[in-house]
Amino acid sequence: MSADDRIRLIATDLDGTLLDPSGHVSTRTRAALDAARAAGILVIPVTARQPIGLREIAAEAGFDGWALCGNGAYGIHLRTREQLFASEIAVPVQQRIARELGERISGLLFASVREAGEVFVAQDGYAALAAHGDHKRDPETMGAVPLAEVVATPSLKLVIRHSTIAPPDLFAVLATLDQDGFAATLSGAPFVEVMAAGVSKATGLAQLCARLGIERSEVLAFGDALNDVEMLRWAGRGVAMANAEPEALAAADVVTGSNAEDGAAIVLERLLAG
């Protein structure tokens, strides 16, 4: 990176990227993040997680400002709770997805993320498949309602899973539907994630950068999964982890070490060393 490639914002995915395999921020990575902040660079988490999941690791990572959640569906300030923007899936679109995908695959289960990511409404039977780590929520708090109720209110993110069919296979079937009104992706979690049409980590990041007066050429982004691809392409410099999915590796400008090897810290240390 040359002296002309000034970085003002670091946008980083969390799971599989910034966090180590145990789901925590290593000492080396935290030191690199703190050094970046001390140099005047903003560090922004851009994640599929909701605020409840971010709060689990906010202290470890030093996050207390803007965050992009739900794969870029909404931007929220972690300290003030101000919401910068929110893009929801329309009810008719959700109902169509549930109907048409259900016609192709029986036994699907749905959940809806709402209200700045604080509300999670799960279909009856969903919690039985879920572990705390899936959504950073106790499955006993997820509730159990009929599918019609899950899709009756707009969602920031609609989650689809199955007891035996793997997410990539669900994703492939979902891709055969008319895509009008929604966008879908995978994050490495045990479910497919559906957002409003056009929503991605890149679109969320673009909105935040517009608010902050930062150019895309001034953004350094880290990621590892399919839901990071658009962000890696959009940023002035996209960095994929060595453990990244093939699509993310292809989208990145640079490949660093894995999340188990403090790959993000390696890049940040080199950047700050000039």
Whole-angstrom Rg: 18 Å
The dominant shape is globular
Number of strands: 13
Number of continuous helical runs: 12
**What can be said about the biggest beta sheet?**
5 strands, parallel
CATH class of the largest domain: Alpha Beta
| Beta fraction | 15-25%
- Unreliable stretches covering 5 or more consecutive residues: none
CATH third-level topology of the largest domain? Rossmann fold
How would you write the strand order of the largest sheet? Answer: 2-1-11-12-13
Helix content: 25-40%
Average pLDDT score: 96
H and E order: EHHEHEEEHEEHHHEHEEHEHEHEH
Which CATH architecture of the largest domain would you pick? 3-Layer(aba) Sandwich
Distance between the termini: 8 Å
Structural class: alpha/beta
Question: What is the assigned CATH homologous superfamily of the largest domain?
Answer: HAD superfamily/HAD-like
Instruction: Kindly give the count of domains.
Output: 2
Protein name: HAD family hydrolase
InterPro entries: Cof, HAD-like_sf, HAD-SF_hydro_IIB, HAD_sf
Keywords: Hydrolase
Organism: Microbacterium panaciterrae
